[in-house]
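Input sequence (357 aa), recorded before submission:
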Amino acid sequence: MWLILLVCHVAGAAKPPAEVVAGRDQGWLLKKLAKEDRVAMRAAIVAELGALRSPDVLPQLLRTTADRAAEVRTAALGALAAYGGDLADPERDGALLTGLGDGNPACVAAAELGLADRLQARVDAGMDRLVAQLIQLTQSGASWQSRRAAVRLLERSPPSRDADQRLAEVAAQDPHAEVRRSAVLALGARGVGSAAGVLSRVRNTDSDEQVRLAAEAVLARMDVAASDAVLAVLPFETRARGLQALAAEMPAYFTASLASARVATVVERAQVDAVLRELRFQDQNIDDGQAVQVGKMLRATQVVTGTLHVVGDEVTCAAKRIDVVTGQVWAPLPAIGTLHDLAAVQRDCAARLASTF
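Predicted structure, token format:
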């Protein structure tokens, strides 16, 4: 008889915690939680309490989000999320935001889920404060997982100039590629046309290929230019005989490259060539004053010019753009390469100029 009892006891002890607590009433769960030391059992109890969605249990769940065990904190955050997005409780919002900054990725994921429901419900009470705190979290010293979660939540937030501006800053400046990529996608989802300039710079200069591709895809969907500028690309100057062919290719290459980068509206080559023939500049070096004259005739707001130099085996390509009204000049650092890879010099020079928008 004692053997049967022992087997039954062992079988009961081997029962998963979730099965042990399933269907238990609120009183039993709270008493058990107060005495229980095992992490897995505490987590199961907390999850079961969340399923009850009882207002009386909420204070206990809020306290449990500070538990020493990450598994229990995760369960508590999930339990708070179970109350649904319609609950606009400032203490619950605060607990979920704290969870979003937790060092444990599972806690971050649970908190993000709860806050996503909260934003989706669009209950106005406390929303401005919640969005402001999410913006702050993207600026803090939190983990990259926490910053990424805050960015993804801002994507779901109501229209806000502050949120849009912060997302643009994150896309350009955050040290982690995944966070920058999430910010780029968030700007696209929110349709922030004013961020086209930032997205263009990201597309042309970000160190991570996936971030660049995300920016390119967003810009294509937006179908907007990074600026209101109308560019006319003029001939490049060179005195090196070995670079004459490359100089002749530069206007067409820069026209296509800048148009593809969506940094501005680019005047068609045929129009530029027609004006150059009319002014008989096609066989002459064009100084800045003449370049501005051509730009005005083409009704362009800016003109692009450049020079090619060679010293030994080293080739330098320097491009700049000039405002035809103010005379302001934007000139990135020159692109430097070798005679053996002129295509790379060409690509780099065009990318550097595009990054000035």
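Checked by second reader. Strands lie at 230-238, 265-266, 302-311, 314-323, 329-330, 335-338.
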